[in-house]
Amino acid sequence: MRADLRHDGVGHLLAELLESFTHLDGRFVRSMRTLVVRPGELTAAFLRGARRQYLTPIQLFVVANVVYFVLQSWLGWNTLSTPLQKNLDGMPYRHFARSHVESFVLRDGRTFEELAEAFDGRVGTYSKSLVILLVPIFAVGVALIARSRARGYLPSLVFSLHFLAFFLWLQGLVLLPLASAVRRNWSGAQSWQDVDQLMMIPTVGSLGIYIALSLRAAFGYPKLAAVWRALALIVVFFASVFLYRFILFLVVLHTLPARA
To answer: Is the distance from CB of 249 to CB of 126 less than 8 angstroms?
Structure first.
């Protein structure tokens, strides 16, 4: 008897996705366990040529991306999709964004409210594909900060894919449900913006620890060197997110269909 997707919903889709990968002789389970429990080991294994027992870095990233965006659509909190108003008020490029939107409104002839509705209706869809831009952007920072051990852009790119896969899994399976629970049960958090600020603490802490451990395993840095490089890479990561959001803003704005 065929499953009824209308009743199974998100849980069924996730189960199908996981089954398709766990069926590949356990590589998915092995890759996930290694990604979470042994930070940096997947990168080290890839660089030394032990690749057949794990999913490729891009496979791991794509699966994490799918799971993250399914869960964020379900729970309603998305750290990688920025509404138009947030681009104008809360981003480092907000002054450019305001002047750009003002000129766009004058040229296009629609009101700001109409533009915001059209923009916000499309930005979530574009973010699902453009999130891949985070990988090469962050990899540049890794190549610069870990240049004494990474020795080239390819190792940095692999490191970036594994780190961002972990970030998406962490967001999707831990931080998104936690943020949703906080918003429902803690009266002090009145909006997703409040929750977003609160969740910065566990996000920065967990990512910083993960990067430090990954640098030690992947590139052999001693503890102190790994710690200060991890601090630098946290700054690079959030700068990469802002750059990704800026590119997303421009792409969505300039691909909006002309006003009818």
So the answer is: no
